[in-house]
Structures are given as C-alpha cells and as structure tokens.
Amino acid sequence: MTRSPAAAPVVLAFRGVDIPNYDVITNCMHCGLCLPHCPTFALTGLEKSSPRGRIRLIKAVADGELAITDGFVDEMHFCLDCQACETVCPAGVKYGSLVEAARAQIFQGGHESFRSKSFKRIFLRWFFSDQARLKSLARILRLKDYLGITWLFEKTGLLKLLSKRLHDVQSLSPQISSHFSSDVLPEVISRIAKPEYRVGFLTGCIMDVAFADVNEDTVELLLQHGCEVVIPKGQSCCGSLQAHYGDRQGARQMARRNIEIFDRYSLDYVIMNSAGCGAFMKEYSHVFDDDKNLAERAKRISEKTLDITEFLFMIGLKIPDRPGPFLSSIHGNKISYHDACHLVHTQRVSQQPRALLRSVPGIRFVELPESSWCCGSAGIYNVVRYNDSMKLLDRKVGHVKSIMPDILLTGNPGCQVQIQYGLQKQDLDIKLMHTATFLRRVCETQET
Ligand code: SF4
Ligand code: SF4
What we know:
The chain is an alpha/beta fold and 448 residues long.
C-alpha cells in the first residue's frame, strides 16, 4: 500500500454514507468481534482481509493518508459483501455501505483493469439496464448451448471479454430458461373476485431469463394466497449487482426506473424472491434520500418491499385440506435451509422461512450447520474469484454432507447455482429447491 501525502481527502458518498464525516467508521470500536464471522478472514487469517482491517483501510483512503492502490482495490473486491460482520457488530457499523462506497470510488476513479471496467460497463450496465437487451443476450446464450457452438464464443474472445475465467466456470453460469417469465406472465393476474392483497412482483434480470420457473412458482404461490399480482411492464433489473460492484450511476438509473414504474400502481406490497434484489429495493430510500423528486416515492417502495417468506409468514401459510401429491411424496423427508447472505444479514430475514418450513406437516426440518456462512456465490464473486469461491463452497457442501437432507432450500438464485454446482461435483443425491417453489408445491390442492 503506497502513501500519497498530497492527495486530497477522497469523498465516498453513497447510500447515505458520507465518509469524510466518519460517523459510521468512528463507530467501530476495533473490538474484533466480527472477525470470527468473516469468511475472508477465515480464508487468510490476515487482519487486512477482516472487516476491522478493511474499515481501517477505507478510513485511511478517505483521510488521504493512503492512495487507492491495486492492493486496496483487491482487498475491497476480495470482500464478499456478505454483511455477516454487520449482523454481529455491537456498534452497529454499516460495513456494507462502507465497502460499497469504497467500490464506487474505485469504479468512478477508473482504478480497475480494462477487463473489469469493460465487464461492468458492457455486461452489468448496458445489458442489465434494458430487459429487451438482456433477453437478446440470453437467447444467444441459449442458442449457443443448443447448437453446441461454445467454441465459437471462446475463439472469438467474446467470453473472455466478460471474464478470463468464464471458460473455466461455465458450469457456474445459470442455464437459460426455455422461455422468459416476463413473456408469459400477464401484467395483472387474479383468480378471485375480491383479492385480499394487491401485490407487485419484480421479475428481475437473472430471475427472468434463467429462473423463469421460480418466478412463475412465486406468482402461483401468491395467487394461492388470495393475492392479485401486478407485474408492471417496463420494469428493470433492480440495480443491486451494479451497486455492489461500485457502479453507482448504473444502479441509480435502474432503481429510478423501478420506483417510477411500481409507484404508478396502488400496491399493498412489492414481493421479491431473490435475496439480493429484495435487499437493494429495501434500500432504495437511502439511495435517493438526496433526491427531492424521488425520495418520497423511493421510501414508499422500500417500505412495501418484502421477501416472499416474510409476506407468507405475515399472512399465514395456507396448506390446503386436500393437498396435492407433492406433500405426500415428501412425507418423512429431511428438509434443511441455507440462508442467503442478503436475506439473513442484510434483510434480517431468517426466522420467517424456518417458521414456514416447520409448519409443513409430515417433514423433519433440520438445521444446516453454519447455515448463514456465505456459500461463495456472492453475485459474480464465483466468476471473478473462482478459487476463493470454491473454498467457501467446499465448506458449505461439507456441512450439507454432515446432515444429508433429502431437500435443501434457499431463497436466492446465486446460492442455488453455486450449491447445485457443489452438490454435483461431489455426486450428492440431494434435491435443491428455491423456497418459493417448495412452498408452492406444498400448497397445491388435489385439483391444481
Ligand atoms: S466492525 Fe463492529 S464488530 Fe467489527 S471491530 Fe468494528 S465495532 Fe467491532
Ligand atoms: S462483508 Fe463478509 S467478507 Fe466482507 S468483511 Fe464483512 S464478513 Fe468479511
């Protein structure tokens, strides 16, 4: 880390955190209670790879005592942004906001490799900011799989533009769905004359093109629970991936679109089935608290946003008197649950899914050891830091093996892809499902 005494204090203002004020950083008592909960500290044992060490680095950069060097950039991106440190911090340090502010400064200042910048600008911003563009890309990727022309993408260097490791981690890329959920789900759906709730639903980006079935299951689950479901046309990716990787402008652009579109409808709630998207939509109010025109509407959307398990816990799971065949097919099964970081640590949603699962008759719910320890997926972490990610995945799969559930559930697409990869590598016969898919099937009637 090189010193830069002449550097002016760096302004890291993002999501309500103005670092030169040190309000958040100075809360850190350097107690170290977060260290045993940090996956990257567990990997290296180095202070600089711990939450406390990174906070010191961010403060030094914000003070102008340290320049933004390659080492600083690497440390900020080595962090998973899992926010496990926030959950245990007695001082309430908003670590996630700090590291995202630091990444925003890195991105805005151009302190990254050409490959990394290209990936963020072309892939995360250009493709993800427009649903039609993302679908076109997804169709090409689907065609590539059907025609077996992966070699063409490799030879032309197209894949390498996204990541030099993408060739090695293709198994970690989600399979593109045979259709996209936003193409088949109507704008407004209801099965009953007087719905109890009018809820909005975000089809998302990856969820839409690679987890269309989970989106359709979630909508069906909402219909099973007496909701009218509104799926606004023209909605955008939530912006969370862009925010987590420092592209503040791209994230705000996508968030703005969603706020404007969802706020046109009179909704009771906005329901999410992806932990990262839900976490970020709940933070829209902070993203726009400096924007007089949007702050009120952003706050309204944030306050209405709930994960599907939060919503079902609140209204009560409706298991039918005459359940469909799925419930009897899982009678006596051992069911377990992996906490997605942005559900358990960022949204603090952990008891609700467990309570729902424990209420399902005939199954045995078994806790997964270290269920809230990151699986190594972390957005695109498994693509850009494959080796570190695989060490975390091995730890996760080791715990899964220790209890050998029949079905393992989770509420985030990234965790699903990552853990599925780990289960396949070890040839484990364990079914992995999204919580919404499992609950939808549990709530099916014989007539469905
Ligand atoms: S971030 Fe919190 S838990 Fe970690 S050292 Fe600082 S005060 Fe202690
Ligand atoms: S966000 Fe996760 S990886 Fe990063 S410092 Fe906190 S606990 Fe460690």
